[in-house]
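Input record (one chain):
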Amino acid sequence: MPKVILQGFILIPETELDLVRYELETHKRLTLEEPGCITFEVVENLDNPCRFDVYEEFVDESAFQQHQERVAVSRWGEVTVNVERHYTVSYEPLGPQ
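The corresponding structure, as predicted from the sequence alone:
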């Protein structure tokens, strides 16, 4: 099964930036604790403080979908309801062939 890679960025309304920054550490910790999460990075862009660059890897589609389902009902999902998401999702072999 191929691993799932999500990469892109989010744009946060300036009025919600402090709350999103505050909740981000918990969101990162919870995601990295999920079964099947390989890598999870969300980094504030140096040129635009309202843009956060995102890179995620999950072992397979099932782990990725479980992550999406958890996020949808989480505090992070709640505080980022107004965030613009700009992602691409790709699939790559996991490990050596």
